[in-house]
């Protein structure tokens, strides 16, 4: 191979780099516009949010965030005048619209449900998936291939296709509108992904590591904890992100199976209704806050994620 | 320190028999090498001694105790893997300390013993380094450190030099042998490299197809191989094998020539193979065994000459003062005290004075 060819492979030219940068920037722009728009909207006033043509420059307001967390009632000017001066900035903000805060909304509760159910089912799916994947990877499991195929086959049909049977089953079992019910459901859906992904990662970890630990005086379980698990962190992190994203964003089952008690944020956010139409800044504020945990989780694990996704692509 | 006794060990994987009715005894403090081509069952045997694989039948005794079906961690042995299996998420110190932590030793003692092991292997300066950036040789030393730190009853090593480059292998060979002399622990070492085996072993067991063909001191195996397979596997350049027919108790017919051999102690079968090491074959103008020079390799002080005879190709080693050229007709004279006759059908060496001399029949 001539040096020229080699350089063109290793080090792209300036034009190519520029082109790549432009393409990446253009794609990022397209991908980010909806999110940027949501975040911008969350800081607008309700009237600015529906203004046409849409305003890009505006004076930011926290009204959306206040509204998403509170329930308010409109009052007569006489009543407003009779009130003592507002105690907090959000009291003042609400009163400027001739309303008073009647109490907290259920957003915080729904958000908390999302966290419990999302992280709970992710933990369970990854925990069970790790153990199952280790067993499939290392032991002579009878009917191994059939079992793995069976596990995969649970994902061959869209889960929503069995929504009605699950709805009836949950009602009979008393799992409807419970945290446990939703955690079990999301775990069941995520488990096949988790087992398959993690089995791939486990297969990549040389057996010699555990065998060395076994000879060095550790039990099989200790060897798993002290030697295999630290090696599998990358795969576990990648799997956890996939599982969390599914459970966090899931809408259809949450809408169908939950209502007063275990409702998660996705079905709740669209129900935020203001006076005379949807309160867009409040919906946007709810959505913005809804995006934060996934963002934080992904950023925290991104080092693992990138390595995890490309793991196994190149054999050492 | 302990003696390892293996009796009638058998291991089957489905239809495949990996180890067949193997009986071996490794003496206390011995450096014992299991040698054979890949797939011969040597690694499986080692893994069964370690407890990483359970035998189909047979018995393994470690220091007199039956450990055949005991778990690896209850056997008090250390294993060095071919690719070292250093834990990548731990630094050198923690890697070496890992077996001690399993025993729940006090922290101070763990520290002291890790340093002691590291000093013995001259890797003290590496203790706080991650294992990732270490050179092959240093990885090897860390793996040895992890093995010796526990003072186990026996060391088992599975091609521990296989992953090193040739130059380094020779150096580590020497280091391993020195380490063995210093610690004196019973060691079972698996390799497919006969040079490694010859250089290090007190005794070698040559295996093929799950069976131990010969188990002896290196010099015995080299000079008195009891089958064509062993004779061929050991030695570089390899032993020459020439077609032969019987010609009385002290000779064999090779082509048109009669070659003297050590006195046979059994009736020879009709089809024979004459085996001779390159250094036991001389060029002699008057010798009746004739051939044509097919190649000359200079090896510094010595040279290896390949000669094609009517009975097969022979190679001999001689000094550089002997001048021969390609295509030249030469005479070959095998050392009459060193030639070995094999039964062509079974590959077995015929009993002769050569074997009797060493007490082998």
What's this, in brief?
The complex is a heterodimer of chains A (about 325) and B (about 350). Chain A has about 325 residues and is mainly alpha-helical.
SSE ordering of chain B: EEEHEEEHHHEHEHEEHHEEEEEEEEEEH
Beta-strand portion of chain B reads 25-35%
Number of E strands of chain A? 4
Assembly context of the chains: heterodimer
The number of helical segments of chain A is 15
Distance between the termini of chain A: 24 Å
Question: In order across it, which strands form the biggest sheet of chain B?
Answer: 6-7-8-3-9-10
Strand content of chain A: under 5%
Q: What is the domain total for the residues of chain B?
A: 2
Question: What is the name of the CATH architecture of the largest domain in chain B?
Answer: 3-Layer(aba) Sandwich
Low-confidence stretches of chain B: none
End-to-end Cα distance of chain B, whole Å, is: 32 Å
Shape of chain B: elongated
Give a short account of the largest sheet of chain B.
6 strands, mixed
Look at the structure and name the CATH superfamily of the largest domain in chain B. Answer: P-loop containing nucleotide triphosphate hydrolases
Class computed from helices, strands and strand pairing of chain B: alpha+beta
Report on this structure.
The complex is a heterodimer of chains A (316) and B (361). With 316 residues, chain A is mainly alpha-helical. Chain A has 3 domains: 14-42; 46-105, no CATH class; 108-271 and 290-310, MetI-like fold. Chain A contains 15 helices and 4 strands. Chain A has a two-stranded antiparallel ribbon. Chain A has a two-stranded antiparallel ribbon with strand order 3-4. In chain A, α7 packs parallel to α10. Residues 1-8 and 311-316 of chain A have low confidence and may be disordered. Chain B is of the alpha+beta class. Chain B has 2 domains: 4-223, Rossmann fold; 228-357, Nucleic acid-binding proteins (OB fold (Dihydrolipoamide Acetyltransferase, E2P), Beta Barrel). Chain B contains 9 helices and 20 strands. A 6-stranded mixed β-sheet of chain B has the order 6-7-8-3-9-10, sandwiched between helices. In chain B, 43% of the residues are buried. Chains A and B meet through α11 and α12 of A and β6 and α2 of B.
């Amino acid at each position: 191979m001539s040096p020229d060819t080699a350089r063109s492979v290793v080090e792209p030219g300036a034009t190519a780099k520029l082109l790549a940068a432009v393409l990446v920037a253009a794609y990022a722009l397209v991908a980010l516009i909806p999110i940027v728009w949501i975040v911008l909207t969350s800081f607008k006033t309700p009237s600015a949010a529906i203004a046409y043509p849409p305003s890009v420059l505006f004076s930011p307001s926290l009204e959306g965030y206040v509204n998403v967390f509170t329930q308010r009632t409109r009052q007569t000017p006489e009543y407003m005048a009779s009130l003592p001066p507002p105690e907090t900035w959000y009291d003042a903000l609400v009163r400027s619209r001739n309303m008073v805060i009647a109490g907290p909304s259920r957003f915080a509760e729904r958000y908390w449900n999302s966290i419990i159910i999302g992280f709970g089912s992710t933990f369970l799916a990854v925990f069970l998936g790790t153990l199952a994947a280790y067993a499939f990877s290392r032991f002579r499991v009878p009917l191994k291939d059939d079992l793995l195929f069976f596990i995969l086959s649970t994902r061959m049909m869209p889960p929503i296709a069995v929504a009605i049977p699950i709805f009836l089953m949950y009602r009979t079992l008393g799992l409807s509108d419970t945290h446990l019910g939703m955690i079990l459901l999301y775990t069941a859906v995520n488990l096949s992904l988790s087992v398959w992904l993690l089995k791939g990662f486990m297969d990549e970890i040389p057996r010699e590591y555990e065998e060395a630990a076994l000879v060095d005086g550790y039990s099989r379980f200790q060897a798993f904890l002290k030697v295999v698990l630290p090696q599998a962190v990358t795969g576990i992190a990648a799997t956890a992100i996939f599982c969390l994203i599914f459970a966090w964003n899931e809408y259809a089952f949450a809408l169908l199976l939950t209502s007063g008690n275990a409702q998660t944020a996705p079905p709740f956010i669209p129900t935020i209704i203001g006076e005379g139409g949807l309160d867009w800044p409040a919906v946007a504020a709810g959505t913005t806050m809804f995006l934060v945990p996934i963002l934080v989780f992904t950023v925290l694990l991104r080092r693992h994620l990138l390595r995890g996704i490309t793991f196994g692509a190149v054999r050492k | 320190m302990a003696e390892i006794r293996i009796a009638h060990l058998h291991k089957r994987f489905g239809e495949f028999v990996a180890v067949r009715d193997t009986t071996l005894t490794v003496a206390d403090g011995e450096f014992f090498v299991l040698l054979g081509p890949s797939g011969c069952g040597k690694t499986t045997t080692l893994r069964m001694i370690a407890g990483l694989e359970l035998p189909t039948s047979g018995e393994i005794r470690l220091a007199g105790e039956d450990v055949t079906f005991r778990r690896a961690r209850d056997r008090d042995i250390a294993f060095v893997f071919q690719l070292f299996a250093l834990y990548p998420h731990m630094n050198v110190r923690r890697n070496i300390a890992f077996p001690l932590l399993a025993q729940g030793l006090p922290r101070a003692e763990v520290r002291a013993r890790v340093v002691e092991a590291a000093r013995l292997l001259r890797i003290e300066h590496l203790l706080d380094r991650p294992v990732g950036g270490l050179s092959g040789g240093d990885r090897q030393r860390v793996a040895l450190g992890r093995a010796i730190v526990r003072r186990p009853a026996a060391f088992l090593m599975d091609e521990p030099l296989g992953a090193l480059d040739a130059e380094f292998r020779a150096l580590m060979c020497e280091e391993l042998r020195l380490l063995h002399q210093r610690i004196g622990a019973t060691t079972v070492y698996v390799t497919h490299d006969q040079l490694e085996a010859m250089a290090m072993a007190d005794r070698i067991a040559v295996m093929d197809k799950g069976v131990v063909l010969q188990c002896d001191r290196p010099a015995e195996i080299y000079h008195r191989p009891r089958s064509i397979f062993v004779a061929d596997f050991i030695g570089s350049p390899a032993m020459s094998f020439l077609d032969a027919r019987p010609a009385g108790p002290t000779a064999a017919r090779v082509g048109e020539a009669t070659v003297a051999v050590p006195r046979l102690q059994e009736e020879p079968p009709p089809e024979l193979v004459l085996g001779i090491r390159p250094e036991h074959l001389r060029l002699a103008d008057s010798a009746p065994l004739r051939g044509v020079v097919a190649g000359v390799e200079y090896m510094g002080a010595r040279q290896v000459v390949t000669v094609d005879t009517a009975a097969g190709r022979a190679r001999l080693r001689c000094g550089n003062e002997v001048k021969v050229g390609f295509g030249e007709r030469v005479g070959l004279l095998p050392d009459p005290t060193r030639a070995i006759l094999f039964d062509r059908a079974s590959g077995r060496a015929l009993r002769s004075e050569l074997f009797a001399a060493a007490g082998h029949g």
